[in-house]
Amino acid sequence: MADYAIYLVQIKSGQLLKKTPLGGFPLDFDPQEIELKVPFDPFNSKLLALIEKDRARIMQTADEVLSGYYHPFGGEKAPLTFVTGVDPSIHWSLVGDQINGEDIKWLWEPARFTWVYDLAKAWLITKDDRYPSFFWQKFTEYIQLNPVNSAPNWSSAQEAAMRIIAWLMAYQVFKASPATSADHTSQLVGAIWQHAARIPPTLGYARSQNNNHLLSEALGLVIAGSLFSGTSPLARNWLNLGVKTFNQAILKQIEKDGTYAQHSANYHRLMLHLALIYHGYAKQLEIDIPVEVKDRLSASVRWLAAQMDPLCGRLPNLGHNDGSLLLPLGAAEYRDYRPSLQAAALAFLDHACLPSGPWDELALWLGLPVTDKEIQIQPSTSPAVHVISASSIQASLRGVTFHGRPAHADQLHLDLGWEGLNIAQDAGTFAYNEAPPWQNPFSTTLVHNTLSIDGQDQMLKASKFLWLRHARAKWQTAPSNDILMASHDGYRRMGVSHQRIVTFVNPQLLEVIDQVHFLRKTDAKHITLHWLLADWQWQLEGNLFTLNTDDRKIEISFNITVLNDSTSTSPIEVSLIRAGETLAGKRQEPILGWASDTYGEKHPALSLSVQTQTNVDLQIVTRFKFSKTVSAAQG
Questions:
Q1: Under a CB-based contact definition with an 8 Å cutoff, are residues 53 and 314 in contact?
Q2: Judging by beta carbons within 10 Å of its beta carbon (0-12, 13-18, 19+), is residue 314 exposed, middle or buried?
Q3: What is the C-alpha to C-alpha distance for residues 494 and 263, in angstroms, rounded to an integer?
Q4: How many whole angstroms separate alpha carbon 38 and alpha carbon 27?
Q5: Distances (CA, A) of 490 to 29, 195, 530
Q6: Beta bridge pairs of residue 460
Q7: How much is the pLDDT for 398?
Q8: Residue 395 near residue 559, CB atoms below 8 Å
Q9: Is the dihedral of CA 162, 164, 169, 171 positive or negative?
Q10: DSSP 609
Q11: How far lies 255's CA from each of 233, 252, 299, 319, 379, in Å?
């Protein structure tokens, strides 16, 4: 809070205008004296052989970039432009999260330059100098349209750090091309120095967030410090500050069991990507990473392995998903975490955890020792997410005791996967800064696969990203390892507690038992059980809901009983909403019936909810019965 307060004072007082002036500061060194050393070598035979196998996709994507298009957030194709619609004489501190009514992230995304990796791979395959020429053309365009410390692409020091990373990763490839001139290199040196100089004045803000911003900015200082601290007086302390800050942030943000402070699958991956780059620079600079930091990173790899579906590489779409993919290497699909897991296991566990495959690409870019030998790691049991499985079905139950800021009000959310298909899913994020109701809409309890009481969230939402009155989960000791039991106290203020029990009755039948316990006499409460399901063909008959696709069938049934006497009761209403439109029942809610795989994208899903009303202890049993058609089973 103190760091954030100081940041606000610096903005309001104009101090940041002086510390980060428009146009930046004059270079205090000769850019031609700087050698841009990067600790990664893309010219190795294994990497070249691997990307050659992916030639068709790489060439298609790279040629799209040459034609002026890219895929923001790993989603649909969009024009590649740095035009912001903002007067370049406006300082970055004078803009907010929306620019001319548009979410600022749409302006930041092309300026992260992550689209350059396919250009680099295309050049490695073909040695066609159109690819580096286009990079330098866009680099020059960016510099011209976004003067130092102007709005909006300088408003986040994290964005500055991420540009440094992408530029240097591209340069290590393109420096071998005749299209890269000495003038290009000098311009890049100056731009990297100005970007690094943007970081220290607002490092306190990053500390106040205690998240991936701090890690990104610390890494930016490490990288820039490795390049400039011996030549530039202003940069002299960057390396030491960056190393110290990065190590401290890892210890503060990763629990000993590997859980990441942001409680987000995608931000967990971003943290590991930053740590992998840090690992490479530490090795090059002969900097010892403290044992305790290594231990936390090792635990975070095990956490990732425990959550990942090995068939498709996906994790449950937990927490915030802002579309970040810092190192898009080794996976054609944005939510494929296998490249990240393989590289992180090699770096922080000293062995592979997956067999060789296209996901080795990231590790090879980073110079990690990829071999054909696979060692199964023992995944950790996260206190935040417990998993049970039977046959090819995996159930993942979430229950957290927060030590940092929660992302979503999602206690006792359940994810279901079936042979790589996400059957019961987390909606994701979609957007942070769109017009209501699309300002971080999927963070609320009502969109998650859990219970809500009287339509209230489990926690008090104070702002777009801030939750108060944190709901605490407690895991109970189950009779056997194939049963999950947990409760949370988020509705204690309303006189109610929620307990969930998850178990496989048999390999094709999952049973989810939700119990509502009244802690004191109170008025009747509306109880809503929600499931966000795959967008398949459906049929609803009473309390039986059936999902069908070409070769699969899932029957979902509900049974509601009063706990004290076990008498059955009927739900007040069963509703189904798809893409915000009510298909059955009376429930109206525009943000229901959507799922988002990446930022700025949402697609239809089936939002099934069961509502009842009671002031006595109640139990709702949901049964998922999985089956395949005869032809599918034979196939």
A1: no
A2: buried
A3: 26
A4: 21
A5: 57, 43, 17
A6: 468
A7: 94
A8: no
A9: positive
A10: E
A11: 37, 8, 8, 17, 15
